[in-house]
Structure formats: structure tokens, C-alpha cells
């Protein structure tokens, strides 16, 4: 049985994952409007991934005898600057999500819930990859000296499956 404290913390994370999904969807819409179909595609898949995290967390709470819930999801930003600025925001957001996941692991540890610690460590490992991916895209965008480089990277990220 999951503790009330951990259930609340995971439910807060479910809401955060839903917000992240909306954030990346907003970025996808913006990038599409700006003519960057590849970046928009990459961001749409990122949005779907965040939504899947919310589903997986909810399923986990239910498996442990708890009740999953979604709280109010705040409005996400609608406008962005350059492609570089969008991905710098992605990187910053992924670092924030890493902090949230670390805090969840701490709560699971505090309530001595080893099964939840094990489950949540998967997210810790995934966040290392998420941060590295976002940082790598930012670094590549910084190296793009002209529009051709950005368009090449747009095409490259559009092949994400």
C-alpha cells in the first residue's frame, strides 16, 4: 500500500507531467507556425512522452492501492523566440523536472518505500538522458552559423520516431 504522503507527491508529479506535455505541445505549435516542421515534430513526440509519464505514474499509484488524480493544470506559455531560445527553455525545464523527480525519490526514501524508490529511479535515469539530449540540441543550435545549419538540424530532428 502506498503512503498518503507519497501518493500526494506522485499525484503532484502527474499534474507536472501533464503541464510539461502541454508546454511541449505549445512549443510544437509555435515551431510549426514558424515553418520548422522537424522541430515541431520532435516537440510533439516530446509532448506525447510526457503524457505517457503521467499515465505510467497513475498506473503505478493504482497498482499500489492508491488513488491517482490530476490537479488543475496551469496555462503554458504560448509564444517563443528563436529556435535556440525554445530549446534553451526545454533544457531549463528538463533540469527542473529532474529536481522534481529527485524530490519524489527523497519522499519514497523518507517513507521507506523501496518499491517506489526502485520505480522512480527509472525516471532519474531517464532525466539524465533528457537533459543531455536537450543540452546537445542547444549546443548544436549554437554552432549553426546560418539558416542552412538550422534547417539541416530541423530536418534531422524531424526524423525522430
Keywords, separated by commas or semicolons:
161 residues, mainly alpha, 5 helices, 0% strand
Summarize the structure.
The chain is mostly helical and 161 residues long.
The share of residues in extended strands comes to under 5%
Please state the CA-atom Rg, rounded to the nearest Å: 17 Å
**Quaternary state of the chains:** single chain
Residue windows where pLDDT falls under 50 for at least 5 positions: none
Shape call: elongated
Number of helices: 5
Mean pLDDT: 96
- H/E series, N to C? HHHHH
Characterize the biggest β-sheet.
none
Distance between the termini: 37 Å
Give the beta-strand count.
0
Structure classification? mainly alpha
Give the helix level as a range of percent.
Answer: over 70%
Structure report:
- With 161 residues, this protein is mainly alpha-helical.
- Helix content is 78%, strand content 0%.
- The protein has 5 helices and no strands.
- Helix 1 (4-33) runs antiparallel to helix 2, helix 1 packs antiparallel against helix 3 (83-110) and helix 3 packs antiparallel against helix 4 (114-143).
- The mean pLDDT is 96.
Element layout with pairings:
Elements: H1 4-33, H2 37-63, H3 83-110, H4 114-143, H5 147-157
Amino acid at each position: 500500500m502506498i503512503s498518503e504522503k507519497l501518493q500526494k507527491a506522485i499525484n503532484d508529479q502527474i499534474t507536472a507531467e501533464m503541464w510539461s506535455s502541454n508546454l511541449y505541445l505549445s512549443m510544437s505549435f509555435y515551431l510549426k507556425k514558424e515553418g520548422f516542421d522537424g522541430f515541431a515534430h520532435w516537440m510533439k513526440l516530446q509532448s506525447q512522452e510526457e503524457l505517457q509519464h503521467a499515465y505510467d505514474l497513475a498506473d503505478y499509484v493504482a497498482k499500489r492501492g492508491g488513488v491517482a488524480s490530476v490537479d488543475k493544470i496551469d496555462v503554458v506559455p504560448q509564444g517563443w523566440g528563436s529556435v535556440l531560445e525554445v530549446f534553451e527553455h526545454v533544457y531549463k525545464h528538463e533540469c527542473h523536472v529532474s529536481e522534481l523527480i529527485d524530490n519524489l525519490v527523497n519522499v519514497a526514501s523518507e517513507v521507506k518505500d523501496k518499491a517506489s524508490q526502485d520505480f522512480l529511479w527509472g525516471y532519474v535515469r531517464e532525466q539524465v538522458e533528457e537533459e543531455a539530449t536537450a543540452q546537445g540540441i542547444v549546443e548544436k543550435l549554437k554552432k549553426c552559423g546560418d539558416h542552412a545549419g538550422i534547417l539541416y538540424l530541423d530536418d534531422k530532428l524531424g526524423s525522430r520516431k
